[in-house]
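Duplicate of #3305? Posting structure anyway:
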């Protein structure tokens, strides 16, 4: 069987050990799997896209690990996609990322829309509607509330700190007498 000649290893790939890229692959794959991307082919394509973007930065940023670069590229790619799908370009990256991931889960990404994840538009209108509606529901509804301080109820443990220790005194005396009886029987039987 004749195989085609292997291309020379890419300078981008050889800038770091292969184990570093394997670790980066594993982290990115785990993240997408946590987002419930279960289609193996789509998952592998997404991971390859992220690693390709990280490799393009690797030659310029020698002080960074492959995993750091891959995770940053993954976050950037996911946040750009959220901004495009949700039309939320003014929201901060962390808020967009958090609420976007929640919207993915609420819109049932793993069930209906797995093939749309990180794909460029146009997207099906039902998908866009589901994402935008769940994105709006994903945020907290802030309400002003008043909390009056209440005394803490410590339950049965509070009885140990009260001055009335009569039930516990009886128990201690009874067990002490029982222990003395056992000691007396031991002394009588062993002398």
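Output from current build:
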């Amino acid at each position: 069987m004749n195989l085609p000649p292997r291309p020379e290893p890419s300078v981008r790939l050889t800038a770091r050990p292969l184990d570093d890229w394997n670790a980066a692959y594993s982290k990115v794959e785990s993240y997408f799997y946590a987002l419930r991307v279960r289609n193996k082919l789509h998952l592998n394509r997404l991971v390859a896209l992220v690693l390709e973007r990280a490799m393009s930065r690797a030659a310029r940023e020698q002080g960074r690990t492959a995993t750091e670069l891959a995770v940053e590229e993954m976050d950037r790619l996911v946040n750009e996609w959220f901004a495009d799908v949700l039309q939320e370009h003014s929201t901060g990256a962390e808020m967009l990322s958090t609420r976007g991931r929640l919207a993915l889960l609420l819109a049932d990404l793993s069930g209906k829309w797995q093939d749309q994840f990180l794909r460029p538009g146009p997207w099906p209108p039902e998908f866009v509607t589901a994402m935008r509606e769940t994105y709006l529901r994903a945020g907290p509804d802030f309400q002003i509330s008043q909390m009056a301080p209440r005394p803490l109820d410590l339950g049965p443990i509070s009885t140990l700190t009260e001055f009335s220790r009569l039930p516990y005194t009886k128990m201690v005396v009874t067990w002490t007498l029982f222990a003395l009886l056992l000691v007396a029987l031991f002394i009588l039987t062993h002398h």
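Confirmed duplicate; merging threads. Residues 11-138 form one domain. Residues 179 and 185 are 10 Å apart (CA to CA).
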